[in-house]
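User: Could you write out the 3D structure of this protein bound to magnesium ion? I've included everything you need below.
Assistant: Certainly. Input first, then the structure.
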Amino acid sequence: MEQQIHTTHSEQETVELGKLLARRLVRGDSILLYGDLGAGKTEFARGICEELQVEDIVSSPTFTIINQYFATLSDGEDATIYHIDLYRIDSPDELKEIGFSECVHSDNSIKIIEWPEKGSVMIDGPRYEVRFTVDDVEDDKRVITITYATGSVQS
Ligand code: ADP
Ligand code: MG
């Protein structure tokens, strides 16, 4: 398993890090974004979407839960991106209602998921697990750890 640790000092640097990751994405990849509110998950997702030529403005999907975009990957292939924010999900029934499982199992799409720990469905297969930590002292500093994994989920 490959792991990278990055430090960013501004919103823009986090967007740039998202863009860098985007260049490595292929269809079927999931990007799982872990971290507190305000940690920078949506900014990172915005970087991914900008790099993949998503036309619409990327807003936080917190209220809509799932945003769907059409994107072009760095290999020139088209792909659907699902940007999902599970922050407001409180029960398996709600997950069902929004069609989370169908979304996660749509093989050829790219899934960007904020608060993946709230989704009861195990997300295995090729995935980047991105963990955001806010610095206690420096307001704009974030430590961002990116781990790439394939196959089944380890617990
Ligand atoms: P989340 O989706 O994790 O709840 P957002 O990405 O919506 O968080 O918001 C992050 C907030 O923190 C934004 O207001 C952004 O301007 C601010 N910020 C400050 N420093 C950084 C940084 N290094 N990386 C990302 N966001 C930062
Ligand atoms: Mg967010």
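Residues 70 and 80 are 5 Å apart (CA to CA).
User: Perfect, thank you.
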